[in-house]
Amino acid sequence: MRLLKNVISVAYTSLRFVLYKIIYNKRFNYKGIQRFSPNTQIFFLGKSSINLGKSVSAHSGVKIRAIGKGKLSIGNNTSINYGCMIVAMNDIEIGEGVEFGPNVLVYDHDHDFRAFGGIKSNKYKVGVVKIGKNSWIGANVVILRETIIGKNCVVGAGSVISGTYPDNSIITQERKTIVREII
User: Can you tell me the mean pLDDT for 13-32?
Assistant: First the structure.
């Protein structure tokens, strides 16, 4: 049964990607066979572009968005787990062999809440996000703009990260549970 579902998913993805290629032309590129769930959303707005390497897979509930002049590049053999969201307004580059746990969020932009009108003004600060090849991003991780993760890194579940991390790093955040009596 699982094999049949995968075959159907690959066939559906192939048809869908041919259609995207016709509609978006040079703004959408992919190589080889892909396996995207029919419940995966791919969204373009403005002059944005998405480039997929060979054998990229995305599970159910994944949302991939390129907005404005945003560029999103995903390397060969990358796997995006259930419920992930990747939104590029500027530049996101995901290396080959990267594995995403469920519900990972990747943004190369933040709302500029200091702009006149606050968040409602729709002003953003943009940066870059780069994730090195063969990295593993744990469940519920949030990757913010101006983040560069080296090759062969592990990002621990539930981390919220921004900054530069060297190759071969394990990136986690300390958590402290505090229990108080209700008085």
Answer: 92
Q: Where are the domains of the chain?
A: 2-171
The DSSP line for the chain is -HHHHHHHHHHHHHHHHHHHHHHHGGGEEE-S--EE-TT-EEEEEET-EEEE-TT-EE-TT-EEEEEET-EEEE-TT-EE-TT-EEEESSEEEE-TT-EE-TT-EEESEEE-TTSTTGGGG--EEE-EEEE-TT-EE-TT-EEEEEEEE-TT-EE-TT-EEEEEE-TT-EE------------
Q: Tell whether the model's pLDDT for residue 93 goes beyond 90.
A: yes
* Stated pTM of the model: 0.91
Q: What is the CATH number of domain 2-171?
A: 2.160.10.10
Mean pLDDT within 44-49: 92
